[in-house]
Amino acid sequence: MLNQFTANATGLPVIAGPVETTALGNVISQAISCGEIANFDEGRTLVRNSFPLKEYLPREVDRWSEVYQKIKPLLR
Asked: Which of 14, 20, 36, 53 has the most CB atoms around its CB within 10 Å?
């Protein structure tokens, strides 16, 4: 829901990786320290190729923009 709302509010697509991202970051760090992979770029590539990404496209952008215009004065 947060990813979809972010896409709606910003008008930009949001691409989300696996929900286990924090644990995978830990695994990548350990793999680097053990010499199994060279660096974080290689780890990111492994994750990207191993797990499906989900894309959230903006919806109801006009409605979100209208609400933002209403609350914008309150944000100052």
From this structure: 14
